[in-house]
Design goal:
alpha/beta; 12 helices; 23 strands; binds ligand LLP; diaminopimelate decarboxylase activity; pyridoxal phosphate binding; lysine biosynthesis
Length: about 425
Amino acid sequence: AESLRVNAVGHLEIGEVDTVHLAREYGTPLYVLDEEVFRANCRRYLCSLGPGNRAAYAGKALLTLAICRICQEEGLYLDVVSAGELYTAVKAGFPPERLYFHGNNKSLQEIEMGLELGVGRFVVDNFYELELLEERARALGKKPAILLRLTPGIEAHTHEYIRTGQLDSKFGFPLATGVAEEAVRRALSSPHLELVGLHCHIGSQILRLEPFQEAARVMVAFAASIRRKTGWVMEELDLGGGLGIRYTAEDDPPAIEDYVQAILRAVEEACQEEGLPLPRIVVEPGRSIVGPAGITLYTVGAIKEIPGVRTYVAVDGGMADNPRPALYQARYEAVLANRMLEPPAVEVAVAGKCCESGDILIPAIKLPRPQPGDILAVFATGAYNYSMSMNYNRLPRPAMVLVRGGEVDLIVARETLEDLISHDRVPERLWK
Ligand code: LLP
């Protein structure tokens, strides 16, 4: 990202803050979030979407109270998927009517919480939820606005996409089988639900535009067929998130502006063809807003050289704070933040500290010959790192700081050892 720089002493800077100073002051592992990059990405979405359309930041990528505040300031909506995310948003003062409430298995408590708070949209995933929501809405005297989540039968891969006749997914009403039509009919028949529109989400870290355009076309065609059959007019079309980002030099994602233009145009053309009025367009970007805004700082510890085989450079975090390499073979790039002026000298594997052979953050990377105490900065860790972090091996979760124009704010405190045992309970007899 453009906010990363190398300063006069050869240290990596982010948001005009020296990362080596950050590591010293706040400890490592440390998540560092560049506020300007985050805000710039929000604005890029809003500007290219234009008035009337909406961007709902997908909180699953990274949600904290401070993040909610920024999203609200920037004029975004928010996509939440659980009571926990809902609670975070509301505690941050985020207006409930600007919330999209997702989830493929919302509990009764979550549904009631959403109804009582008055969330703007329930994105209904299945018949069970439809019935539960209708029943609770009736009981509580509410009439929630809903979108139906459909699976449009499009499989988006990183480099290709194929159309599947029958979509095998745990999410949504399958469009192909007549199930989606049945869902629309049931929603329309309920006096306690207001069907506002349709939703789909075809995947994440998608690096091509065609699958998004295809999804838009399929959704509009479905809405047109429903209109012919029932007269219902789709007011809102939510196309989900999924735009990919650059993790390594091999990734070449479309720009936010090009992505938005592509889907707007696809919807416009399809609506024209089908004679449908233009719906309001909603997108739910997570990764493409926050991913590039984050880096993680680690301290190098043990270095194990296996002659002729490999050198393992262990850092003080790993799969507990970034499970993505272990889960998805996700690739990352990194540098020694305290030695930016030195050329790469050796190829090493960056290992985490968890008791798992699979805890390798980066299988092969060229760095200046690492020394214990060096600060390793891993790039593009803003999305799905902190939000997917865990306490495996009883590692405390790292702190997170927000940087901007040389200023630093702590937005997530580091977990303490005391935090780790705070939910443990010991039966009296075991203390004897
Ligand atoms: N909307 C819905 C309904 C979603 O399911 C998702 C992501 C998003 C929006 C946001 O997608 P994004 O713009 O961030 O791609 N843990 C995985 C990613 C899982 C994404 C799940 N859904 C990873 O670390 O790659």
